[in-house]
Structures are given as structure tokens and as C-alpha cells.
Amino acid sequence: MALWSGEREGPMPVVARRDGRGIRYADERSFDRDANGVLWSRAPSQPGRGTPQFGSVHSLRQRIAMAGLRCQICGGPADRTPDGVLWLIDARPGEILPDEEDTAHPPVCRPCAHRSTRVCPHLRGNHTALRVRTFFPSGVNGVLHVPAPNGPTIADSGPIAFGDARLPWVRAHQLIMRLADFAPIDLDDPRA
Q1: For the whole model, what pTM was predicted?
Q2: Is the dihedral of CA 73, 46, 32, 18 positive or negative?
Q3: Fewer CB within 10 Å, N- or C-terminus of the chain?
Q4: C-alpha closest to that of 103 among 151, 139, 61
Q5: Is the predicted pLDDT of residue 122 greater than 80, yes or no?
């Protein structure tokens, strides 16, 4: 899911849609939008070309992993038991909302969960493993544009929920999943 140095995005200028109700690419193609009509960032897909840019996310691979419940590290199936799908949240248990949690990090398989909590400085000592029974796409992280006299201009970046009236003005970069009906687990417990 990490962006590789050989996959750098080129310029992605946007223009106003013809109806004036959002943004589009001047050379927009059918695959630039998802089934919900959201405009997505473009990035060439050449994993393994160059060096991994940990901390930078490849938007298409992130969306595929999230929607397909694929491990964010290896791309294989996420770990699933009758108690739910395995997610790693970069927060301590007391920092997680009790009823729901939004995340842009796809689920994980068990071997990658163990490995990443040992080697990733961001997760080491600051993570919670969850078994999640209920989850659904709730929005996107992206760049929000606003109308301006010389064409759309960037106003902000961050999460935008599905159903938000500003969504047509966003160039999305990550799919956000709402997690609900979950329970923390101990990764070292083989029964969890």
C-alpha cells in the first residue's frame, strides 16, 4: 500500500465541472471516479520500482485493500474469525471511541500485524488490535477545492463524509472505513 519512489504522481490540475457543481480532470477518464462518483487521485501503479516511501500511501492500492478487506502490508486476505476482521488502530484502547471508529488504514493479516507492531515506530507501544464485526465506507480523505475566478483552488484537506455537500469538490486520496461492533484483542493470544 505504500507509494514507491518510482510511482510519483504527476501534476493533477482540476477544473470546474461543466455544471459548476464540483471538480473534474480536464482529461477525465471513466476510471478516475468510483461507483459513488467520487474523483480520485491518479498515481501510476509500479510497486517495487524505486524504494518504498513509508508514510506515503498509494491511493488505488489503499482503496482496493480497504474495499476488498486485503491486508494493508502484504495484500493478502485480512485475518478473519467468527469474531470479526482484524484491524490495527494507531491508538491506545482508552483513546478509541467505544461505539465507532473511523480509519483510513485497511485491515491486516495476523503475521503482518505481529511484524508491524514490532518494526513500525508509529505503532510500537501505541496500537490497539481490534476484531471488528461491522464496518462500512463512511467517507474519504482528500483535498477540498472551492470555486474561484481563475478556476477551482485548494481550500483544505482532510476527511469528508459521504453525503457531505462538499464531496463533489474533493479529489480523494484514501477511503475511510467506519468500524463498529468491535472488541480489543491481544495479538499474542492465539485464540483471539
Answers
A1: 0.88
A2: positive
A3: C
A4: 139
A5: no
